[in-house]
Amino acid sequence: MYHHHRKHFWGLFSVPHAEWKSIRDEKLDITQFGILRMISLAAVPAVAFLIGINQIGWSLAGSEFNKVELAHAIPMAVAFYALIVVFTMLMTYFTFAMERAYGDEASFGRCLLFVTYTATPMFMAGLVGFIPIVWLCMTVLMVAVCYSVYLLYIGIPIYMNIDEGKGYVVSTGVISAGLCLLVVFNVLTVIMWVNMF
User: Fold this and answer.
1) What residue numbers bound the domain in which 12 lies?
2) What is the pLDDT of residues 9-54, one digit of tens each?
3) Which residues contact 35 (CB under 8 A, 6 or more apart)?
């Protein structure tokens, strides 16, 4: 399982078309694997953020750093982690609804795996939390979002076995929902940040 996990991880960055076919054809306990993969990847930005704001401190522009005490940093990281998990599950539910409408073999487990693989660039972009400079975090996140959108756009027709026309409709719907959720996620993150201080 972990060998496949590593292979797919690098494959999505090097040969995404072929990797989506490989992920589609794999026979795993996908719900269990999807949940395990999602909760472990969601921890990447939360842990990086926790260490970053506590050890280095956060900064708007990179000139002045403000360290956050562990007593405040831990609840913030836990809340951040919970937000990531909840929004990943919401995205999965929306993708599942779209696949049920347009695809042949809809299952929540398959959609969870699909969303988690699609969001991998965003999860890994969370490593920038080790250096929590606001402009840098936003720049890295936007690059990751662009690549996730690309992965989703090419992945939906392949992974869901639907033709290009329907694939375009599903991709557009899922991307629109994802971008709306991302805006809400960012707003909630800011609200959480303000309330903690």
Assistant:
1) 2-196
2) 778 888 888 888 888 777 655 677 778 889 999 999 999 999 999 9
3) 112
